[in-house]
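tool=predict chain=A
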Amino acid sequence: MRVHVLQLAYDDDEPVAARVERAAALVSGQRDADLVVLPELWAPTGMNYDLWTAHAESVDGPTVAAVAEAAKAIGAYVHAGSIVETAGPDAPPEARGPQGRGLWNTSVLIGPEGDTLATYRKVHRFGFASGEPQLMEAGEQLVTADLDLPDGRVRIGLATCYDIRFPEQFRRLLDAGAEVFVVPAAWPARRVAHWTLLGRARAVENQCTVVQCNTAGTHAGVAMGGHSQVVDGTGVVLAEAGDGEEVLVVDVDLDVTRRWRADFPVLADRRL
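tool=predict ok
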C-alpha cells in the first residue's frame, strides 16, 4: 500500500478558499498513491477557534467537494483530514447533538470515485473546557473502513489528533479488525515529542501500522509541530517529516505486520 502523507503548512494570512484550492491541487498531484492523507482542520485552521463557526460546512460542502474531485482525478482513496461540520441553522434540536451546539470535528474518507465512504466525528475533544469542548459536540461512534487495494483489502481505523492519547480507543479499533490507524492532527510544536512517541506506542501495542499527518506553519500564534510519520506494526518508523510543508511517500508492506502478529502473538495473551 503506497501512502502519501500531505503535511500542509499555512499561516493566518492565507485565505481559506485559496488554501482549499492549493490543497486540492496538491492531492491531484499524488497520482501513484493508494491512500492520500491530509491533516486535521487544515481549511478552517486547527487553532483559531474564532473562525470555526464562520467556516463550518456540511460533509458535502465545498472543502470536501474539492478534495473529492481531486481523489476522483487520481483514482485513489483520500482521507480529507477534518472539517468543522455543521448541522445547519435549520436542523432540528435532535440533530444538533446532546449539548445543542450542532458543530463537530469531522474526518471524511473519500473513495477513488470521489464518493464519501466514511465520516468520523472526533470523540476526544481537546481544550480543557475551551476550544473544542466549549464549541463542539463530541463524537459517539468509532469508525473503520475497508480499502480495496490492488494487493488486497485492508481495514483502517479512524482517529483524530487528541484521540491518540487514549489507548482504549485504538484497542477497540483493533478489535473491530483494523490493521492501519489513520490519524490527522493539528498538533503544536511544544508537545511534538508526545505526538511521535504516542504514535509509536499505538503501533507497538496493537501491532498495527499508524499513519499520522500533522500540520506545519504557525496560526493563531501557535507554532505547529509537523513531524508526520508512518510507523509499521513492529514499531519501525518507515518515514518521518520535518517541521515544514512536506509530502511523505511511503510503501507500507502490510504482510510485515501480519507476519509479526503471527511470529510474536502478544495480542493472544490479553486478559483484561
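The longest strand covers residues 77-86. The mean pLDDT is 97.
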